[in-house]
């Protein structure tokens, strides 16, 4: 019989106890102290459809006609039904980026969020969300990461601008 090498081998998957889910990382985890102001975490772009808006309307229970009635929207000065603002904000969710994978087990809480809706978003628009670290505040034992949250559309227009804050464990 041949001996099975259990390190970095596909055959290792068949050896009981050789796989540890806690070591199955997409990227090596970093600490609060490893983060740098100016780092950007992008989410994949997405093109919104009527189905996305309908699904969000169902989940949010927001039944205002500006979101689904083209005639009502036009009568009130909109070129088309407007995608829910909170749906656009949801595109800035940190979990849509690599950020939670980068910080790994040091995450404690998502503590704060704010935004301004700058332009209307409609079905057919492609959104490009991102988070940029703008501040790192060490509190001794914990640290706050502040990010600028932005969403651009396919025309390069900034449609949402905001801020997120996260509480992380520090080395100290």
CATH architecture of the domain at 30-47 and 84-169: Roll
**Mean of all residue-level pLDDT scores:** 91
**Spans where pLDDT lies below 50 across 5 or more residues:** 1-6
The Rg value, from CA coordinates, equals: 21 Å
CATH C-level name of the domain at 30-47 and 84-169 = Alpha Beta
Q: Given the helix and strand composition, which structural class is it?
A: alpha+beta
Quantity of strands, as a count: 6
CATH topology of the domain at 30-47 and 84-169: Thiol Ester Dehydrase, Chain A
Task: Describe what this molecule looks like in 3D.
It comes from Pedobacter duraquae. InterPro entries: HotDog_dom_sf (IPR029069), MaoC-like_dom (IPR002539), MCH/BMMD (IPR052342). This is Acyl dehydratase. There is one protein chain. With 172 residues, this protein is α+β, with helices and mostly antiparallel strands. Helix content is 16%, strand content 31%. Strands 1, 2, 3, 4, 5 and 6 form a six-stranded antiparallel beta sheet that branches. The longest helix is centred in the N-terminal third of the chain and has 11 residues. The radius of gyration is 21 Å and the shape is elongated.
């Amino acid at each position: 019989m041949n001996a099975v090498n259990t390190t970095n081998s596909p055959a290792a998957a068949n050896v009981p106890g050789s796989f540890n889910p806690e070591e199955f990382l997409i990227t090596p985890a970093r600490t609060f102290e490893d983060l740098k102001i100016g780092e950007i975490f992008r989410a994949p772009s997405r093109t919104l459809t009527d189905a996305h808006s309908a699904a969000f309307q169902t989940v949010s229970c927001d039944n205002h006609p500006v979101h689904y009635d083209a005639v009502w929207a036009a009568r009130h000065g909109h070129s088309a039904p407007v995608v829910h603002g909170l749906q656009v904000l949801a595109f800035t969710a940190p979990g849509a980026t690599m950020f939670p994978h980068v910080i790994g087990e040091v995450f404690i809480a998502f503590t704060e969020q704010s935004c301004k809706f700058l332009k209307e978003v409609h079905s057919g628009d492609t959104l490009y969300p991102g988070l940029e670290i703008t501040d790192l505040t060490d509190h001794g034992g914990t640290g706050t990461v502040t990010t600028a949250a932005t969403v651009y559309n396919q025309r390069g227009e900034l449609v949402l601008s905001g801020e997120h804050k996260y509480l992380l464990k520090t080395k100290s």
